[in-house]
Design a protein that fits this description.
single chain; mainly beta; three-stranded antiparallel sheet; two-stranded antiparallel ribbon
């Protein structure tokens, strides 16, 4: 199964859906047209976190990471770098690590 994130205003993820492997290769067309959902859809991987691919047990492996992080509702899609990351935390001072695409607290 493949996961696709719908990208809304300001490049914020508004929902994530599962698509069968048979339709994965045409995810945007399948979701927008065949399913009648419209919108912009970008594939994401449940097995990607911190720009590293993890196996089903959560252990990093040699797989290829997809767009740095699994998209969640409220995540940001960075079109220029073709990655997903969470919004900046509201409390504290943070910087976005552009290798992992995770927020790191500035100390």
């Amino acid at each position: 199964m493949a996961h696709f994130a719908e990208i809304g205003p300001d490049n914020v993820v508004i929902r994530v859906v599962v698509v069968s492997n048979d339709d994965e290769h045409r995810g945007q067309e399948f979701l927008a047209d065949d399913m009648g959902l419209g919108g912009t859809w970008v594939q994401t991987s449940y097995n990607t976190y911190g720009n590293v691919h993890h196996n089903s047990g959560g252990v990093p492996d040699e797989g290829t990471p997809v767009r740095a992080n699994y998209a969640r509702i409220g995540s940001i899609y960075n079109l220029d770098d073709d990655v997903f990351h969470r919004p900046e935390p509201s409390e504290g001072d943070w910087t976005l690590n552009t290798e992992t695409w995770l927020w790191e607290e500035v100390t």
